[in-house]
Amino acid sequence: MASLRWAGQPADVRHSSMDDLWFFQVVASNETLTAASRELGCSLSAVSKRLSALERRLDARLVQRGARRLALTSEGERYAARSQAILDQVRDLEDSLADQSADLRGLLVVEATLGLGRAHVAPLLSEFGAAHPHLRVRLQTSELPLRPHRRTFDVAVHVGMPPDSSLRMRRLAANRRVPCAAPSYLAERGVPESIDDLARHNCIVLREKESDYALWRFGDTADTRQMRVHGSLASNDGYVVTDWALEGRGVIMRSEWHVRPYLERGDLVRVLPHIPTPAADIYALHGGDEHLPHRAAQFIDHLSAGLSKRLSSVDPPH
């Protein structure tokens, strides 16, 4: 089973309880055992056998069998959380020694949403890695909501208030979700004057993060209103949704960081500009422990400066 090692695990940690902790963190951080097997670089049957052996050793069922997505039992959730804490302590010890060096070393794991990760986090992480050649970097993008109890990242880039207060956060950039549409669509269907007018429009919805994607929110923290919208088009890909809007197919509700260049160029027009929308600022998140690895702190600084520059550009994201 020597091949079943988590990326970043010391090569001499094998056939031990510590090895089981590394292994189960990979399993818990993936959506399926198949995905875990790809990350571990071994067969699905090998992962399944290793997991069964671990459950026999602990005399506890850790994973619910037969679920479409990998689902942890209550024992599995507890084992994942406690093992993450233990592994964090090991990494903190190693980081405290490595931080004495001027060169950034080790593994930096960054998690981000698909759209923001592809458009801005990936290029900034590439720049950071190029500036620190002894550092290994890994970006994990996902359309699923952040799962702090399965934390496998050093830094997570999150749009909107994070779901877990145990994570520390730093605000990187201001952002709101704004409704907008192409001038051609508004010329044909009319310009909405009120939130209720959206009921007469083809609203293109983004099926994002397992949320109630058809429920659009307006107002500020003191006075909010929700509107359930309807339309003929929906996608879990934000770029597809925006492309449909640019083609004049309907109204979208998208993050300002994504659509602002189109708004400035006139390709899209803000709908209901007199009605505020709730803040969805961009944050960098990291664990609630006192010691933040120097490489993670440096990257957060790089993110803050880089996002400020990139989001001020008038060029649309690619």
Describe the structure.
The protein has 318 residues and is α/β, with parallel strands linked by helices. The chain has 9 helices and 14 strands. The longest helix is centred in the N-terminal third of the chain and has 25 residues. It is globular and about 65 Å long. The two termini are 42 Å apart.
| Major sheet details | 5 strands, mixed
- What is the distance, rounded to the nearest whole angstrom, between the alpha carbons of the first and last residues? 42 Å
- Taking pLDDT < 50 over at least 5 consecutive residues as the criterion, the unreliable ranges are 1-15
User: What's the name of the CATH homologous superfamily of the domain at 1-98?
Assistant: Winged helix-like DNA-binding domain superfamily/Winged helix DNA-binding domain
Q: Roughly what fraction of the amino acids lie in strands?
A: 15-25%
Mean pLDDT: 83
Structural class per helix/strand content?
alpha/beta
Features:
five-stranded mixed beta sheet, 9 helices, three-stranded antiparallel beta sheet, 39% helix, 19% strand, 318 residues, Arc Repressor Mutant, subunit A, alpha/beta
Brief description of this entry?
With 318 residues, this protein is of the alpha/beta class.
Question: Any chance you could write out the topology, listing elements then pairs?
Answer:
Elements lengths: L16 H13 L3 H8 L3 H15 L4 E2 L6 E2 L1 H25 L7 E8 H18 L3 E8 L12 E5 L8 E6 L3 E5 L1 H7 L15 E2 L8 E5 L4 E5 L5 E2 L2 H9 L5 E4 H10 L3 E2 L11 E5 L7 H18 L7
Parallel strand pairs: 3-4, 3-5, 8-11
Antiparallel strand pairs: 1-2, 5-14, 6-14, 7-12, 7-13, 9-10
Helix pairs in contact: 1-2, 1-4, 2-3, 5-9
